[in-house]
Amino acid sequence: MEQQRPNNGYQPGGQQPGYQPGNQPGNQSGYQPGNPQAGQQSGQRFGYQPGGQQPGGQPGYPKPDGQSGQRFGYQPGQQPGGQSGYQPGNPQPGWQQSPPPAGGRQHFLSPEKWRDHTAIRHISNATGIAIIVYTVLPALVSVILNLLPGFPEAYNSNQLFALAVDSLFAMECVGLPFFVSYVYLRREELSEPLAFGTPASGGAAALLVFVGLMLCMVGNYATGFLSNFVNAVFGITFTAPEDAFTITNGAEFGMRVLQTAVVPALVEEFAMRGTVLMPLRRYGDKFALLTSAFVFALIHGNMEQIPFAFIAGLGIGYAVLATGSLWTGVLIHFFNNFIAVCSEAMYDLLPASTASVLTLAMLLFVFLAGVVTLIIYLVRYQRLPLDTVKTPLDSRERNRAFLCSAPMVISIVLLVLRTITYVEI
Fold it and tell me: Where is the composition biased (Gly residues) (predicted)?
């Protein structure tokens, strides 16, 4: 029998990411990266938000009781495998930019600045186009799937089938555009091979996984506080896509883990840290970290997730930079979302009071473990010095080069417009 969730309990939230039968372009179908919702004004539930959006882009996991309460989910240096990483201060081997012609914007940049400006602009173009495709593709795919005889009925009546479709949806709508972006950057020699290798320090990686999970929790509560504050002071309500799935057995739990934790962790870390963070790293670790976290936050598409995703993106990005391996980020992302699924399952299968106690115990353990491991990390390991890579471009010039390309401006406008649709005044 379905249990009523208390307002102070953990409730992973958000619409089921992925294909939504019957949705036409412009609806919130399809993949939107997201973590479960951060706190809402109607009674924040504490817990995690999965850090990457679920297939369909919809945040987390709403409870069937329809409550509107908060849902929670989530060295520099040598590349893994012994490959040499980005060389501070040096342009990508083999990539040369011709000196700028006289006149126009180029007239105000030295050849060295113009070289780096153009390289960053290429990365921005590739990222912006990938985001535009990611924004449009889910609606197009949903229209096609709606035309298949019997598909909408099968999706609505079979949860295992729906979860499998959503997993494939995420790989297509997020993975495909950013894979094309990565191939382009590799061809232009603006990106190194993906850093899916052994972390430079296994001990540091293990510690940073717990630190990253703690930061996800901090981001979750910060988002809940912001949501409640804005609602109380301005009467503005932040909303997010809803999800109607309920876990009723072990098979559905396993498929939910695949759809919510495994696929987003791999696909989104490849997209955000692999094709945005790492190529920008040679122009400054701080620049790469802040820029990738900004993109990661914005593609979530609603204010219930954007603040959380930015904080989580900083934590995950730092862990990837510090260990030189994308696997560190994948583990943080996976465990954050896995905790959300476990909490969701407890609320679906156990009495609400029992689920609340177990969720609180789980979150308290993760938070304390994060504090302890952070202290150990700061004492035992040299902290990552940010902005060690030299470039003639100053911070403003780097930001302008990345944010002001035509594809990036268009993608930001599209994402802002989508975010506005989840704001109720």
Answer: 49-59
